[in-house]
Structures are given as structure tokens and as C-alpha cells.
């Protein structure tokens, strides 16, 4: 009979994100020691399979990103825990001081000469420390202060591991694997080992006593590597575990257990090299560990530590299981696996032919429930529900997709557009509702054809959701971008990122209205205009504005950031924002809304009107690029600001699709917790969608080097 993992124990450690974790045994007692997003070391004891929280110790002011347990080393001849943080500090603490509830942690060594995020910490066989950093280096460090440095080129070093020959295998943010000699000489490079950042590396011996290397990446893939007879590394097997990020993994009972952004653990059989089970967690899994008895421990984003067992005598009580399954069922999630699937294509009952290792969506009363087959529970388990936004209805009770106000003579009339209808059919409905004639009908058809893509009207089934993710590195910063058309049936956002010859970086987010064309035009044209105007944003906004007079009844917001040397220069029109994500976030932009008294007064003083919070009843933002039909009423002067940057600063640029459901403080906190800009952008984008944002969502996150 197939056996599966079941919940054994769980504990919440004061609601803090558990980002890294180690299992250890000390003085005949078992412990889990974790690091969280607030700089706390978390100490939990394990007795008879159950957790007991001992204490939290604050040891730094930012996220603890990596951790290693040393039974003994040249740094300290007794057991110690080594932590690395987001600011590049490496600290050693005696285990005896950590597990004693009555005393403060004893720091026994410190490495403080580096100042970039420590992504990974490992120990070598001779007691040294290997750590990887966002400053593009992997280092082997000795207590004397001497170190061997391995440069990863222009991308951040993410992870490394020493093999049985003393070679160092490292993974990089560009998806490459590299092999180095023990004295830091590059032996081999494997380009595109993963499509995205290599997240972690493990080594193990197979049944033939051959050393096998495993790697996981942000591409959701688990790869297996072997050494050839010529001592070169080559790929042996590969399995796509998920299309989301995977963050950690361990080897347990001839299986690989993988923690993921999907809020589950994936169980990959090492023999078959395929996913054979999904273990429901209910939260993003940042860290995984294995106990000597084969129990799995997961450190989670919701501040919990959970263990799972194959042993019947260690499983949680029936009451605890019932409560846990009820908790999972209530979660609101929306995994990327099912974005863009029409609701009509989703069944009401689970498909028994759905293989293990896959989510199975079913329709429920309010949207979609996500089901998995789980070996432990031997049944379908609900791991959350995705709430689907109900389609809106017009005053006549007809469903519609979008609406806008148009002027017919002296009247402002609201038009309700259905994407399954053609432009002609939409115009006929509108004209019938308002007793309009053929001339008005022809003008409305022309308007619809000009402002909607051809495949948006009358061809609903052929539309595909727009989702964009990309990242990169410039001289002064790293960046990550995540976009989705979300609940909308069209995408009108556009973004750009450019590095000029002098290293200055330009970023922009443009949120279009009336058509996608103005946003695309601004994103394509503004970088070159800024360069031509020698980085003068005020001149550049005036020039791009003059070029966009061609857009009469459509336009775009603009939120742009220029990073030059150690300064941030910002300009904006409309309600897209730039936020400097410090402990107290700084909004560098101003929301230009027609309902704002100062903006409304300007419009009225120049002969315009503000009706229902919109300029002439048409436009909610009071400043924009384009919209030249409103040119004489609207203020087209951008808001400009600047700020001196410091190392480690983070910048968020996003449209109102994010800020409709996120405060600056919430978004800034999530950015500051993230380990890389792309994962931060993706998390904000996806969470905004989960929170019910009904707009296009574009999020750009920048980490200053």
C-alpha cells in the first residue's frame, strides 16, 4: 500500500516569516532553529515528534537569509549556528546559548567586511565557510580573514556546494552552473542549466556509490547532474515540478522533497524522477529540513513550522487533522497553473485520471476550488479556493465587460461593452437603449474599432491572458518586472527598462486607458527622449507630451524613475506610483485624480468640468499623456522629485492595479522582505490579483547595489 506524509506537529512562531532553517541534535535533544524576516533566530525543541517554542532572539535588523549548523569548525570548536543576512553580515552563535531559554545568544565570531545579501551558507570538510552573495561573488572564508573569491560575472551568486573532491559547484542568477577548484580556478561552466536563477544545490550518493548533483531553479525545474569519465558535469535527468518558484529541497527516503511558492511540498521519486505526491502546507515554503527518522520539516511564510511523518504513531490527532484540512479549505489562492482557463472548461468534480503531482481545479459556488490527490489522506484534499469576480450587469440586467462615458450632443451617456459581441452589435444595443440614429451608430462603431484590438470584440474565445515576467542587472541595480492583464479582457499597461552607456538606468510604468497604444508608444519612445535631453525629466515629459497629441480620446499615466550615480530622479502623471521602500516608505509621486480638490479647481478654472470624479465625465486621472480632446482643461505638468540613495535601497514602481488593493506600507514591507526583485514583483502582482484587483497589474521592483 502506498504511504504518504501526514501532519505530525505545527507551531506558529509569533507570526514571523520563517525564511531559513536547520535541524540539529544537541545534548541528546532535537531542535529546529530558524531565521525570520525581522532578524530573529527562532529556537524550537522537538520531543516525541511535537514542537515546543523556546525563544526568539533578535540578532540583526533585517532578513536572515541563510543558515548553517557547524558541529565544530576552525571558527569555534563547539557547536554553532552561522547566519547570513540581507546586508551581508555573517554571524556565528554558540548553540548552547541559543537553546538555553534563560540566557542571551553568545556571538562567537563575525564576518562584517561585505555588504551585499548573503544568499547561501555552507561549510567545507575542513571547517571553512562558503557563502554566496549578491555582489556577484562566491567566497571560501577562513578564520584568519583570508578568503578565496570566485567571481560569477555580472550576475548574483545564489548557491554553492563542495563535492567529495573538494571542488565547488556554484549556481548563478543567470541560470548557469560553474565548477571551481578548491583554490578558486574556474573548471567548467554550464550555461542555461536553468532558465532562471539556480536556487540551491544538493549532493548525494546513488546505489552505485556515484556522486549525484541535484539543482533547483526559479524556473520550477529539478535537474540531476553526473560527472562523466572526463570529470565534466553533464545533465542526466530533468523534471518540471511546477511553473512557480521553488525555494528549498531535501532528500528523504529516496525522494526529493521540494518547498514551493504554490504553498505545498512536492514529493519527487528519485528512481522514477517524477512528482508522485503533493503535501498540502497552506503557505509558501521557504525552508525544508529532514529529521533522522525521515520526518520532513517545513518553514513557512505564515510564521509556522510544520512537520510531516510517514509513521502512524507520530501523526497528529484526528481533531488536529480535521482542523488542518478545514484551514486549507478556507485559503484563498490562485496558482499560476490555471490563469486564463475559461470557467466553462473547469469540471464540477475532480478528475480521477488527474495524476498525482498536479493540481486539479473544480468549479464551486463562488469560483474555483483547487484539489490534490494526497497519499497520506488517501483522498482528494482541497488546498484553497480562488474567488472569481462576478461579471457586472448594466441597468437592463445584461452582463458586460467594461464601460465608459461618451458625449452625444450635450448628453453624457454610459456605454456598456460586451467582448463577445462585435463592434456593430455593441453599437446596435447602445443606440437602441438611447434612441440614437444611423449617424451616431457609425461614429460609435468607428470609435470601438479604433480603441479596441480586433480580437477583443466578437472573438472572446481566442483571447489569451497577457502575463509578463523578466529581470536583469544594471550597473547600479537589479530589477524584476511582473505584469498581468488580470481580470480584464485586455492589456493596456506597458513597461520599459533601459541602461544608458554611462550606466544610468531608466524605468517606466505606463497605464493606458481607451487603448493600449498610448502606453506602448510612451514606453517605446520615452527612453530615447530622456537620453536626448541629457536625463532632464522635465524637458522629456514636455517632449513626449507634445508627440502624443495624436491620441485624442485615449492616453496613459506615466511613472518613471532615473537612477544616476547615487540619486533617484522621479516623474509622474496620473495615478501610477514610485515608492522608495525604506523602513518608513517614501512615496515619490503624487496621485493625480480628478476628484482631488486642487486638481478639480485647476480643471474648472480652465473651462472644464468634473462630473462623478472624472474630467468632463470621461477621465478619472487629472493628468496624463495623450487625451488631447481634454488638453485645454487638464494639467500636463509632471510631478518631479529626487532622493539620495543608499546601498540596499529598494524601489517599487506600479500602476493602480496594485495600489487599489495595497497600501504603500504593505507593498513596501513585502518588497523589503524579498530576496530578489523578480520574486518581489511576482508576489505583489499575484497577491493583488488574489485580493480582488480588477485592473491590469504591472509591478517593477528595483534593488540598489
Automatic annotation (TrEMBL):
Domain of life: Eukaryota
CDD domains per record: PP2Cc
Residues covered by the PPM-type phosphatase domain: 478-704
Ranges for domain PFU: 372-462
Classification via InterPro entries: PFU, PFU_sf, PP2C, PP2C_BS, PPM-type-like_dom_sf, PPM-type_phosphatase-like_dom, WD40/YVTN_repeat-like_dom_sf, WD40_repeat_dom_sf
Keyword terms, alphabetized: Hydrolase, Metal-binding, Protein phosphatase
Keyword Metal-binding tagged: yes
Pfam families xref list: PFU, PP2C
GO MF terms, alphabetically ordered: metal ion binding; protein serine/threonine phosphatase activity
Family from the record: Belongs to the PP2C family.
Official protein name in the record: Protein phosphatase 2C
Species annotation: Tritrichomonas foetus
Amino acid at each position: 500500500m502506498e504511504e504518504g506524509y501526514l501532519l505530525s506537529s505545527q507551531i506558529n512562531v509569533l507570526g514571523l516569516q520563517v525564511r531559513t532553517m536547520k535541524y540539529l541534535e544537541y545534548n541528546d535533544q532535537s531542535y529546529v532553529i530558524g531565521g525570520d524576516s525581522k532578524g530573529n533566530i527562532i529556537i524550537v525543541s522537538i520531543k516525541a515528534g511535537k514542537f515546543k517554542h523556546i525563544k526568539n532572539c533578535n540578532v540583526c535588523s533585517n532578513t536572515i537569509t541563510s543558515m548553517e549548523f557547524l558541529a565544530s569548525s576552525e571558527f569555534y570548536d563547539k557547536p554553532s549556528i552561522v547566519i547570513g543576512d540581507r546586508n551581508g553580515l555573517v554571524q556565528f552563535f554558540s548553540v548552547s546559548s541559543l537553546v538555553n531559554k534563560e540566557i542571551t545568544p553568545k556571538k562567537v565570531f563575525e564576518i562584517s567586511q561585505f555588504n551585499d545579501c548573503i544568499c547561501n551558507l555552507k561549510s567545507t570538510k575542513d571547517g571553512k565557510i562558503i557563502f554566496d552573495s549578491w555582489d556577484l561573488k562566491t567566497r571560501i572564508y577562513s578564520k584568519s580573514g583570508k578568503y578565496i573569491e570566485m567571481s560569477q560575472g555580472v550576475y548574483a551568486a545564489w548557491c554553492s556546494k563542495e563535492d567529495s573532491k573538494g571542488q565547488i559547484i556554484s549556481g548563478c542568477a543567470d541560470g548557469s552552473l560553474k565548477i571551481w577548484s578548491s583554490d578558486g580556478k574556474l573548471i567548467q561552466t554550464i550555461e542555461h542549466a536553468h532558465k532562471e536563477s539556480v536556487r540551491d544545490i544538493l549532493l548525494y550518493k546513488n546505489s552505485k556509490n556515484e556522486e549525484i548533483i541535484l539543482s533547483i531553479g526559479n524556473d520550477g525545474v529539478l535537474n540531476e547532474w553526473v560527472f562523466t569519465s572526463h570529470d565534466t558535469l553533464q545533465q542526466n535527468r530533468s523534471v518540471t515540478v511546477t511553473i512557480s518558484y521553488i525555494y528549498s529541497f531535501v532528500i528523504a527516503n529516496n525522494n526529493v522533497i521540494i518547498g514551493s511558492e504554490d504553498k505545498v511540498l512536492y514529493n519527487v521519486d528519485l528512481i522514477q524522477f517524477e512528482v508522485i505526491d503533493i503535501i498540502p502546507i497552506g503557505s509558501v515554503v521557504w525552508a525544508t529540513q529532514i529529521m533522522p527518522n525521515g520526518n520532513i520539516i517545513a518553514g513557512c511564510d505564515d510564521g509556522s513550522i510544520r512537520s510531516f511523518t510517514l509513521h502512524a504513531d507520530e501523526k497528529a490527532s484526528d481533531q488536529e487533522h480535521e482542523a488542518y484540512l478545514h484551514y486549507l479549505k478556507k485559503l484563498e489562492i490562485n496558482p499560476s497553473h490555471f490563469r486564463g482557463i475559461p470557467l466553462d472548461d473547469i469540471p464540477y468534480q475532480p478528475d480521477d485520471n488527474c495524476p498525482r503531482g498536479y493540481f486539479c481545479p473544480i468549479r464551486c459556488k463562488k469560483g474555483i476550488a483547487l484539489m490534490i490527490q494526497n497519499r497520506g489522506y488517501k483522498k482528494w484534499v482541497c488546498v484553497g479556493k480562488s474567488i472569481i469576480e462576478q461579471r457586472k450587469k448594466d441597468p437592463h440586467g445584461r452582463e458586460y465587460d467594461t464601460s465608459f462615458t461618451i458625449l452625444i450632443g450635450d448628453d453624457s451617456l454610459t456605454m456598456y461593452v460586451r467582448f463577445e459581441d462585435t463592434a456593430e452589435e455593441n453599437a446596435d444595443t447602445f443606440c437602441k437603449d438611447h434612441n440614437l440614429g444611423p449617424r451616431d451608430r457609425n461614429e460609435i462603431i468607428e470609435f470601438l474599432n479604433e480603441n479596441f484590438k480586433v480580437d477583443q470584440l466578437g472573438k472572446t474565445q481566442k483571447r489569451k491572458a497577457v502575463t509578463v515576467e523578466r529581470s536583469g542587472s544594471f550597473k547600479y541595480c537589479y530589477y524584476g518586472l511582473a505584469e498581468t492583464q488580470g481580470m480584464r479582457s485586455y492589456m493596456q499597461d506597458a513597461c520599459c527598462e533601459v541602461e544608458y552607456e554611462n550606466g544610468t538606468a531608466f524605468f517606466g510604468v505606463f497605464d493606458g486607458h481607451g487603448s493600449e497604444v498610448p502606453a506602448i508608444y510612451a514606453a517605446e519612445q520615452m527612453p530615447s527622449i530622456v537620453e536626448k535631453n541629457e536625463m532632464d525629466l522635465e524637458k522629456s515629459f514636455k517632449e513626449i507630451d507634445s508627440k502624443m497629441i495624436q491620441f485624442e480620446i485615449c492616453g496613459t499615466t506615466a511613472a518613471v524613475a532615473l537612477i544616476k550615480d547615487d540619486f533617484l530622479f522621479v516623474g509622474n502623471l496620473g495615478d501610477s506610483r514610485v515608492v522608495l521602500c525604506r523602513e518608513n516608505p517614501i512615496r515619490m509621486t503624487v496621485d493625480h485624480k480628478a476628484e482631488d480638490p486642487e486638481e478639480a479647481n485647476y480643471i474648472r478654472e480652465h473651462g472644464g468640468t468634473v462630473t462623478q470624479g472624472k474630467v468632463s465625465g470621461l477621465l478619472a486621472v487629472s493628468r496624463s499623456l495623450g487625451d488631447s480632446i481634454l488638453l485645454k482643461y487638464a494639467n500636463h505638468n509632471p510631478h518631479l522629485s529626487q532622493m539620495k540613495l543608499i546601498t540596499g535601497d529598494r524601489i517599487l514602481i506600479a500602476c493602480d492595479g496594485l495600489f487599489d488593493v495595497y497600501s504603500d506600507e504593505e507593498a513596501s514591507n513585502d518588497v523589503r522582505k524579498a530576496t530578489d526583485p523578480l520574486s518581489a514583483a511576482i508576489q505583489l502582482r499575484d497577491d493583488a490579483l488574489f485580493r480582488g484587483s480588477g485592473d491590469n497589474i504591472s509591478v517593477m521592483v528595483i534593488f540598489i547595489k
